[in-house]
Amino acid sequence: MSKLIEPHGGALKELYLDEAAAATEKQRATDYPSWDLNARQLCDIELLLNGAFSPLEGFLAPSDYDRVVEEMRLSDGTLWPMPITLDVTEDFAAGVAEGQRIALRDAEGVLVAVMDVAAIYRPDREREARAVFGTTDVAHPGVDYLFNRGNTVYLGGRVYGISEPAHYDFTHLRRTPRELRERFAKAGWRRVVAFQTRNPMHRAHVELTFRAAKQAEANLLIHPVVGMTKPGDVDHYSRVRCYEHVLKKYPEATTDLALLPLAMRMGGPREAVWHAIIRKNHGCTHFIIGRDHAGPGKDSAGEEFYGPYDAQHLVEQYKDEVGIEVIPFQMMVYVKERAEYAPIDEVDEDETVLQISGTEFRRRMREGLEIPDWFGYPEVVEELRKTFPPKDKQGVTIFFTGLSGSGKSTIANAVMAKLMELGGRRVTLLDGDLVRKHLSSELGFSKEHRDLNIQRIGFVASEIAKNGGIAICAPIAPYTATRRRVREMVEEANGGFMEVHVATPLEVCEARDRKGLYAKARAGIITGFTGIDDPYEAPQDPELAIDTTDCNPDEAAQQVILKLEQLGYITLR
Ligand code: PPS
Question: Looking at the domain assignment, is residue 11 inside a domain?
């Protein structure tokens, strides 16, 4: 059933059924147990089916899995560094038997593939984390998936493709391994060096790729990952628009751009070996590995998980088996005196090196500061400024939290009026009572319901942030972890977050008792009332704390406005 083609790149295993067989399977699949693939699994299946993961023919069963985890090899000895597994819930696994065929569907219910379940097993996830990622620290995104996001049961078995996962963005740049191989053959590109990236490309990257192509006497493929990268990375839509600008910097007909729907694991050295094999499968002959390839960032203790050149060393160790030549690169830096880029190991001691780190770049974007020409191309910087506008044009969430009767709603309303007077941004008020009426009318005040209520507020606030608006939220939000989650949601949407603790003491709130609820709570008519017989975890480090005991709403709102300006979220006239 698998078709084999062998240009450079070696055997390519495409796993799609032919049209007639696919049509039959589509009909039969209505009777199969059906699993909805999550985002990571969808990426995996796409690359399994189109041959990017050749020689794999499906999700790993224990015989392959164990050896991949322990030795980076399939059971037949072939080098394969990353366990490609299908994790499912206990519930789903309980309804499946070994030997059974199951349907694999995308989030819309479209049948992507069917799978013959050869094995159902519960992996030792700690062993997997340790062997594959070298750590069990959940600050590592790969470990975090294993321990917190993935499911506990693995299904292994051969997969058969029915329909390619649907993509509606940048369709002109999406190419399967077969398509890329054919493209290279047609263009007469006999040597192709691939460049992997999950970041926007600046001058340093272009210089590095130039040099690599020259060194390998090869054409260049810019092959960015658009599946899943590291949380917090620049979204792929913005990046691809940047790559399209960058492509014009290379001499015509020397360089190609194609998108790779890979779900990265941020596995450093092992991942580098995996990336190299994937590029070989796409018909490339050379692969660039730079500093800290597929690095997961820092661990919980603030230390790097891997050494900066560990990835290069591991790939070097397996170079005869990988089937693609690796071009290791040191970090490229700008040498002021020469007014050009050079690998850091080629810089003399008396020369001045200029560098802007990713963190510094993001800071400058946020503050609307200049990005020097030696660092980035103006078109790329302009593109990124659209995604990361300066703070006073960003979406922002003002999140009031405090006891009932502390004054949250009153201040929130006053802040809203002041922001409307200022103009220039759309403002939405998500007051506690308003949300409970329109979004959470079925919820009560258990911990579970309160968390759900706040998560809904967070979802709406993050949608508002995405569109550059200001969301003012004013729920009690008694739990620290839930408030933190809202902050993360908003920040993931590139929005700013300002927490305001309305820290009016309980005695004052109770003395006010505007709604008569404290009296009822004391009398036991209402139970689970915040501050009386339900907890309130006060914020430890809010951007602002206001006690309204001796301050009127206008003064309180003014404090919020000034803080917003101080943090750069608004500009006062
Ligand atoms: S939470 O915890 O954030 O979900 O609460 P919130 O959505 O802000 O709702 C709080 C308002 O509901 C009224 N109310 C109660 N509050 C706390 N505990 C209990 N058990 C309760 N029952 C009803 C109360 O009027 C709160 O309004 P505010 O504006 O805070 O006074």
Answer: no
